[in-house]
Amino acid sequence: MNTPGSLHTPAFAHYSVKWSPFHTGRLALASSANYGLVGNGRLHLVSLVPPTLQLDKAYDTQDGLYDLAWSEIHENQLVTASGDGSIKLWDIMLNDLPIRAWHEHSREVFSVDWSNLDKEFFISSSWDGTAKLWTPHRPHSVQTLQAHSACVYQALFSPHHPSTIATCSSDGTMRIFDLRAPSFPAAPVPGGAPGPAQPPAQAALTVPASTTEILTLDWNKYRPYNIVTAGVDKTIKVWDCRMVKLGGTPEVGGICEKEFRGHEYAVRKIQWCPHRPDLIASASYDMTCRVWSTTSNPPAPSLVHIHGAHTEFVIGCAWSLFDEGLLASCSWDCKVNVYRVPINPLL
Amino acid sequence: MALRALINDAECGPVNPLQSLSKQFDKDRGIQQDHFWPGPAGSSREVFRTQPSAHSPLVQEAAQFFSGQSGVSEFSPLHASSFNLSSLRDTLPQSSKQYVSVTTHPSSWAADFLNHDVVSPGLHSQTEEISGSFGSSDSHAVQSRQQYLPHMNRGFASGGFRPPMPVAPFHTPLSPELTQPRSEYVILEEHFPHEEHASPQEQTQPCAGAIDADELSRTAGLLVDTVKEETNPKFKNSAFLGLMRQLRDREMVVEGTTMVTADGTTGRAQDFFSSRDVKGKGKAKGENGWADAFQEANGTPVTTSWVPHQLTYDQDQLLDANKGLPYRKTVHFGQPVVSEITTSDEIKASEETESLEDRYWRQENEDYKAYWNNIPERQTRRSDPEWDTLQQDWDHFEATATGITPVSFYQFQARNPYLTGASSTRVHSLHSDGWHSNENILEMEAAVQQEMRNPTLWYQLGVKQQENERELHAIQALQRAVELDPSYLEAWLALAISYTNEGDRNGAYKAIEHWVRSNTRYESRMPMMDQGIQAADSEKREALVRCLMGLARVAPNGEVDADIQTALGVLLNTDEDYQKAQDCFRAALSVRPDDWLLYNRVGATLANSGRAMDAVWYYHQALVLNPSYIRARFNLGISCINMKQYDEAAQHILDALVLQEHDASDSGDTRGITSSALWDCLRTTSMHLQRPELAALCETHDLEGFRKAFSSE
Known about the structure:
The complex is a heterodimer. Chain A is globular. The two termini of chain A are 22 Å apart. In chain A, 0% of the residues lie in helices and 48% in strands. Mean pLDDT of chain A is 86; it is low at 186-197. In chain A, the strands form 7 sheets. A 5-stranded mixed sheet of chain A has the order 14-15-16-17-21, with no helix packed on it. A 4-stranded antiparallel sheet of chain A has the order 1-29-28-27, with no helix packed on it. Chain A has a 4-stranded antiparallel sheet with strand order 2-3-4-5, with no helix packed on it. Chain A contains no helices and 29 strands. Helix content of chain B is 60%, strand content 2%. At the A-B interface, strand 22 of A face helix 1, helix 2, helix 5, helix 8 and helix 9 of B.
């Protein structure tokens, strides 16, 4: 299966692709018309019937969709993040409309992530500088975290510690928060304007990871202390956050273990392989999706694979949770490609 | 927490920024010329750097300052750390940007006091509250500023600027003086955008619609500009960038939630999606159009959501544009923040409120600037050659965890038995027809060590290392060979192949270029070659291919020159044109039917193009000719994996590992000698075989254990 399975969804530029944690070949795609500039969004449900991808269903939304997350507790549910600040919960057995919608963020919601450990909860992050904790059963957010003073591009639960999240922001920092820490300001009244002078919440660790915007991060699935970040500086950086003391005094630091250069433009999405502790997939504005290995020592080749089939910015990528080495990437060329990362024979 | 237990683990180690510079893919290696510029400096792909703000006088000044100083003593600890200051280039414009972004946020403390006299009445009424909260939330304020300060402290303190003052004045009433603990530059940068935007903001609010069209087209224009030097055809053909061009030229405008051509009649937006779907476009369910959304909270335009992040530092402009319309102006057009704005009226206003101390420091900074503006010219002129030499010397070293070690010097194995008096056993058939393959690495290393300046020996060692699946050793040996004899054709070609395998395209191009240049056989065709070789980096590949094709055509009597075909094959392979590459290797094979390397190359290109089945035959041929050809064996294993013949794959990879192990001297450490690529592959195969216990053995590179476990069945 070296030839990629590919699916074209005309007129909707993709922003995010995620594999279902329950069904082997099921994918969901968040997309926006007009590249998310103006107009509608559409949620696509896709299944992989090797060697092809087929479109099962689509839901239209009023504003562009930037991200989605499958529920970890209900096989047919997922949440989407919208450009208008709203978050919607969908049941894919139903048609047309979401089963629940929340609207608390004052600006674009840029990421959603469902907790792997506390499966009741998911978290969203927004350009309004906050990350919000939600549970599907409540009409309002459970907790609001003034994570940064600038856009929060991604917030992710640690796969190892419940209540621990990492965020990254246009302020160039990556932060780790313990949601149980007491020092958070009270959540603003739902629907109301955010408080004028809400100071950022206290992070357990702040990593000044870049001098420019950090667009994406991911936790290593095997090493609880490893996080990878990437962004406008085109560099992928692997961080060792072992100095973090949860619940202690705030710390600034983090040791950059590895750096990978090669992308010619900003890196938009990054993900560790769920099957191996040393493989990273990255999607970039240079129109490629690449796979890197962290085990090779410099100057050995760390670049494992380049997928160059996309013809516009590659915005999202996701490793299959069931099939090792199977990667999906989605792009503004309105195509999602699924392919196996090959081991290249040498000359 | 468990995390805490992991402190002091051995894996914590400093990462030297220099090391990471080395892995540039498809990029000009010229970058490493200047350690003080953290990013690639000269690459033609670095289009963003041509934008004005990267050249802000402040940045240049600082860089000149540091480079001037560090040229003197490179290796002192002080300057080891000054390498880290390379981030200065980023942090300077950056930190100001961060501040601006802080201030734009309604809930940030900085915004509150900086804006308090100009922002909307709503905020005004809260001033009291804010000032109250200032007393209590001091710690927050301090804390948040500290996130930004470290960069600057580093930069300014070591650059002779005033170290930051304690953060005392926070209890004083809200006034610009609050910013004084920061360095003068920051004050200026931060101030003026605000002072400046104050009135535009009020004015623009009512006519936001008009402005937004302007801004949209301008932003689109900026975006298009940033990629205008991009040579990648994908960027030229990009529908999104096409749309940006049209937005810039006002051929396309945003109306409600759709895009229409400027005359407003046809909804041509769908052209960008190749008119495949009309549904997607018109299905606006709500009436909250773009313009409405634009006027939402903080005057945030919806445009922000599409502004891609691909741009480097200069995109600050765009990014700040995201934060709110008024800032776009100030940040865009006030590029030389320090120098030009000083002439404006605002500075007078601020000077009046400036304390004596501030004035002193400002003066000091200006003097300082003036001083350095004059100095560097003298100094750089004088020290350039000097610096270049230092630079070259430096390039031969790399900093590792254990200190500074020479780069690319071949690491011979310790305790080589062939060196301990047994050297006479070596068969000296090297200069007869074709050296044989049965020699092992240790033997060859011993030969090299006895004749360190013999390029032929180095070359043979390099090729052997290639065959034995140790690319890095191969590169080092081959580099040594061409250093000793720059006209060594075979070595250049072998080096090109190694670079290709490492994914270093530029290295491969350069090696092939050298090969062409030194090839005396086609000297008469030199003009043609030169034409190709003088091409810019971006066109180098094409030029080389053209040149080699030309050479292949003029070969006397229509005979096939296997070397030219091989070189062409390598070039085409780097470009993933496997079909053509394979043709080239086959052509080479037709005149050298006994070359096992060529069999493997044909096999590898076949496998690369997804034809694992066909590749197997070629690998087998290679192995028939040379049973100890480890690379072919490994490649055979990979093909077996691709065909899901995991059992067989494991056998081949295991064989390859065993062969590799034979290369080890008796120094006892066999772990370094087997390559981790093979182990990784074997591990994956074991997983596929549902044998996790075998996979675990792979983790520890336990060949003996694996052999026992695997062959005991």
